[in-house]
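JOB MANIFEST
job_type = single_chain_structure
chain_count = 1
residues = 213
[input]
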Amino acid sequence: MPDIFSFLSLIWPAYIAYLIAVLSPGPANFAIIGTAISQGRRAGLVLALGIFCGSLTWGVSAALGLAALLRTYAVALEIIKVIGGLYLIYLAFKAYKSARMPHAVPAGGTAHTNCSARQLWLRGYAIHITNPKAIFAWLAIMSLGLPADAPASTVVLMLGMFSTSSFVVFTGYALLFSTRHALRLYTAARRWIEGTMAVFYGVAGVKLLTSRI
Protein backbone atom coordinates (compact mmCIF):
# COMPACT_ATOMS: atom_id res chain seq x y z
CA MET A 1 0.00 0.00 0.00
CA PRO A 2 1.54 3.36 -1.04
CA ASP A 3 2.65 5.65 1.79
CA ILE A 4 0.79 8.98 1.86
CA PHE A 5 4.03 10.86 2.55
CA SER A 6 5.51 9.59 -0.71
CA PHE A 7 3.05 11.80 -2.59
CA LEU A 8 3.92 15.04 -0.77
CA SER A 9 6.44 16.03 -3.44
CA LEU A 10 3.58 15.99 -5.95
CA ILE A 11 1.04 17.66 -3.68
CA TRP A 12 3.11 20.77 -2.89
CA PRO A 13 3.34 22.06 -6.52
CA ALA A 14 -0.41 21.53 -6.88
CA TYR A 15 -1.00 23.31 -3.57
CA ILE A 16 1.06 26.33 -4.62
CA ALA A 17 -0.84 26.50 -7.93
CA TYR A 18 -4.14 26.38 -6.04
CA LEU A 19 -3.02 29.05 -3.57
CA ILE A 20 -2.10 31.41 -6.41
CA ALA A 21 -5.48 30.78 -8.03
CA VAL A 22 -7.50 31.38 -4.85
CA LEU A 23 -5.56 34.54 -3.96
CA SER A 24 -5.86 36.11 -7.42
CA PRO A 25 -8.65 38.61 -8.23
CA GLY A 26 -11.88 37.12 -9.51
CA PRO A 27 -15.67 37.41 -9.10
CA ALA A 28 -15.56 35.59 -5.75
CA ASN A 29 -12.83 37.68 -4.11
CA PHE A 30 -14.23 40.87 -5.61
CA ALA A 31 -17.67 40.08 -4.17
CA ILE A 32 -16.18 39.49 -0.70
CA ILE A 33 -14.20 42.73 -0.85
CA GLY A 34 -17.16 44.79 -2.04
CA THR A 35 -19.56 43.31 0.51
CA ALA A 36 -17.13 43.66 3.43
CA ILE A 37 -16.41 47.29 2.58
CA SER A 38 -20.01 48.35 1.99
CA GLN A 39 -21.93 46.17 4.44
CA GLY A 40 -19.47 45.37 7.19
CA ARG A 41 -17.56 42.45 8.63
CA ARG A 42 -20.48 40.14 9.37
CA ALA A 43 -21.92 40.41 5.86
CA GLY A 44 -18.49 39.90 4.31
CA LEU A 45 -17.83 36.80 6.42
CA VAL A 46 -21.22 35.26 5.65
CA LEU A 47 -20.75 35.85 1.91
CA ALA A 48 -17.22 34.44 2.16
CA LEU A 49 -18.61 31.34 3.85
CA GLY A 50 -21.07 30.86 0.99
CA ILE A 51 -18.25 31.17 -1.56
CA PHE A 52 -16.15 28.71 0.45
CA CYS A 53 -19.01 26.19 0.47
CA GLY A 54 -19.34 26.59 -3.31
CA SER A 55 -15.63 25.92 -3.70
CA LEU A 56 -15.85 22.91 -1.38
CA THR A 57 -18.76 21.54 -3.43
CA TRP A 58 -16.67 21.64 -6.60
CA GLY A 59 -13.64 20.23 -4.75
CA VAL A 60 -15.58 17.25 -3.43
CA SER A 61 -17.13 16.76 -6.89
CA ALA A 62 -13.68 16.70 -8.49
CA ALA A 63 -12.41 14.26 -5.85
CA LEU A 64 -15.36 11.93 -6.49
CA GLY A 65 -14.86 12.07 -10.25
CA LEU A 66 -18.03 14.04 -10.96
CA ALA A 67 -16.04 16.57 -12.98
CA ALA A 68 -15.34 13.98 -15.65
CA LEU A 69 -19.03 13.05 -15.67
CA LEU A 70 -20.08 16.68 -16.13
CA ARG A 71 -17.53 17.07 -18.89
CA THR A 72 -19.10 14.12 -20.68
CA TYR A 73 -22.52 15.74 -20.46
CA ALA A 74 -21.62 19.10 -21.99
CA VAL A 75 -25.24 20.30 -21.95
CA ALA A 76 -25.24 20.39 -18.14
CA LEU A 77 -22.12 22.53 -18.12
CA GLU A 78 -23.57 24.86 -20.75
CA ILE A 79 -26.64 25.38 -18.56
CA ILE A 80 -24.44 26.13 -15.54
CA LYS A 81 -22.36 28.52 -17.64
CA VAL A 82 -25.42 30.47 -18.86
CA ILE A 83 -26.87 30.71 -15.34
CA GLY A 84 -23.53 31.88 -13.99
CA GLY A 85 -23.06 34.49 -16.70
CA LEU A 86 -26.55 35.90 -16.26
CA TYR A 87 -26.13 36.03 -12.49
CA LEU A 88 -22.89 38.02 -12.81
CA ILE A 89 -24.61 40.44 -15.19
CA TYR A 90 -27.43 40.79 -12.64
CA LEU A 91 -24.84 41.68 -9.99
CA ALA A 92 -23.34 44.20 -12.43
CA PHE A 93 -26.75 45.85 -12.86
CA LYS A 94 -27.24 46.07 -9.08
CA ALA A 95 -23.79 47.62 -8.64
CA TYR A 96 -24.53 50.10 -11.45
CA LYS A 97 -27.79 51.16 -9.78
CA SER A 98 -25.96 51.62 -6.49
CA ALA A 99 -23.25 53.70 -8.20
CA ARG A 100 -25.89 56.08 -9.53
CA MET A 101 -27.23 56.81 -6.05
CA PRO A 102 -26.05 60.28 -5.01
CA HIS A 103 -25.62 59.60 -1.29
CA ALA A 104 -22.76 57.60 0.17
CA VAL A 105 -23.30 54.82 2.68
CA PRO A 106 -22.41 55.92 6.22
CA ALA A 107 -19.45 54.34 7.99
CA GLY A 108 -20.59 51.04 9.41
CA GLY A 109 -22.47 50.17 6.24
CA THR A 110 -26.25 50.35 5.87
CA ALA A 111 -26.59 49.23 2.26
CA HIS A 112 -28.73 46.17 1.59
CA THR A 113 -29.70 45.87 5.26
CA ASN A 114 -32.66 43.79 4.13
CA CYS A 115 -30.31 40.96 3.17
CA SER A 116 -30.46 38.15 5.72
CA ALA A 117 -27.52 35.91 6.52
CA ARG A 118 -29.19 33.20 4.45
CA GLN A 119 -29.49 35.51 1.44
CA LEU A 120 -25.86 36.57 1.73
CA TRP A 121 -24.72 32.95 2.02
CA LEU A 122 -26.79 31.93 -0.99
CA ARG A 123 -25.40 34.86 -2.98
CA GLY A 124 -21.85 33.75 -2.25
CA TYR A 125 -22.63 30.11 -2.97
CA ALA A 126 -24.31 31.03 -6.26
CA ILE A 127 -21.30 33.08 -7.40
CA HIS A 128 -18.98 30.09 -7.09
CA ILE A 129 -21.25 27.17 -7.88
CA THR A 130 -22.42 28.69 -11.19
CA ASN A 131 -18.86 29.04 -12.49
CA PRO A 132 -18.05 25.79 -14.36
CA LYS A 133 -14.42 26.88 -14.68
CA ALA A 134 -14.06 26.36 -10.92
CA ILE A 135 -14.59 22.63 -11.22
CA PHE A 136 -12.06 22.39 -14.05
CA ALA A 137 -9.56 24.32 -11.93
CA TRP A 138 -10.11 21.82 -9.12
CA LEU A 139 -9.87 18.91 -11.55
CA ALA A 140 -6.62 20.18 -13.07
CA ILE A 141 -5.02 20.81 -9.68
CA MET A 142 -6.17 17.47 -8.25
CA SER A 143 -4.79 15.73 -11.35
CA LEU A 144 -1.50 17.59 -10.99
CA GLY A 145 -0.93 16.35 -7.46
CA LEU A 146 -2.77 13.06 -7.57
CA PRO A 147 -1.32 10.13 -9.54
CA ALA A 148 -3.53 7.20 -10.48
CA ASP A 149 -2.16 4.95 -7.72
CA ALA A 150 -2.70 7.48 -4.91
CA PRO A 151 -4.64 6.13 -1.89
CA ALA A 152 -7.91 7.64 -0.73
CA SER A 153 -6.10 9.19 2.24
CA THR A 154 -4.09 11.34 -0.19
CA VAL A 155 -7.30 12.64 -1.77
CA VAL A 156 -8.63 13.53 1.70
CA LEU A 157 -5.32 15.23 2.58
CA MET A 158 -5.35 17.33 -0.60
CA LEU A 159 -8.99 18.28 -0.18
CA GLY A 160 -8.37 19.23 3.45
CA MET A 161 -5.26 21.31 2.67
CA PHE A 162 -6.82 23.14 -0.25
CA SER A 163 -10.19 23.77 1.42
CA THR A 164 -8.60 25.03 4.63
CA SER A 165 -6.49 27.46 2.62
CA SER A 166 -9.48 28.76 0.66
CA PHE A 167 -11.42 29.26 3.90
CA VAL A 168 -8.54 31.28 5.38
CA VAL A 169 -8.14 33.37 2.21
CA PHE A 170 -11.85 34.12 1.73
CA THR A 171 -12.50 35.02 5.37
CA GLY A 172 -9.19 36.90 5.47
CA TYR A 173 -10.36 39.15 2.64
CA ALA A 174 -13.61 39.78 4.54
CA LEU A 175 -11.74 40.71 7.73
CA LEU A 176 -9.15 42.85 5.96
CA PHE A 177 -11.63 44.92 3.97
CA SER A 178 -14.13 45.44 6.82
CA THR A 179 -11.79 47.65 8.83
CA ARG A 180 -12.57 51.29 9.67
CA HIS A 181 -10.00 52.44 7.13
CA ALA A 182 -11.72 50.41 4.40
CA LEU A 183 -15.12 51.82 5.41
CA ARG A 184 -13.78 55.38 5.27
CA LEU A 185 -12.35 54.64 1.84
CA TYR A 186 -15.72 53.29 0.72
CA THR A 187 -17.56 56.35 2.04
CA ALA A 188 -15.21 58.66 0.15
CA ALA A 189 -15.14 56.70 -3.12
CA ARG A 190 -18.39 54.71 -3.04
CA ARG A 191 -19.58 55.57 -6.52
CA TRP A 192 -16.20 54.76 -8.09
CA ILE A 193 -16.03 51.45 -6.20
CA GLU A 194 -19.57 50.46 -7.16
CA GLY A 195 -18.92 51.51 -10.76
CA THR A 196 -15.77 49.39 -10.86
CA MET A 197 -17.72 46.45 -9.45
CA ALA A 198 -20.38 46.90 -12.13
CA VAL A 199 -17.76 46.84 -14.89
CA PHE A 200 -15.95 43.86 -13.36
CA TYR A 201 -19.09 41.78 -12.94
CA GLY A 202 -20.34 42.75 -16.40
CA VAL A 203 -17.11 41.79 -18.13
CA ALA A 204 -16.89 38.53 -16.16
CA GLY A 205 -20.50 37.67 -16.99
CA VAL A 206 -20.10 38.35 -20.71
CA LYS A 207 -16.81 36.43 -20.76
CA LEU A 208 -18.45 33.43 -19.11
CA LEU A 209 -21.42 33.52 -21.50
CA THR A 210 -19.21 33.71 -24.58
CA SER A 211 -16.49 31.31 -23.46
CA ARG A 212 -16.19 27.78 -24.70
CA ILE A 213 -16.09 25.07 -22.02
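[summary]
The first helix runs from residue 8 to 23.
Residues 32-210 form one domain.
exit_status = 0
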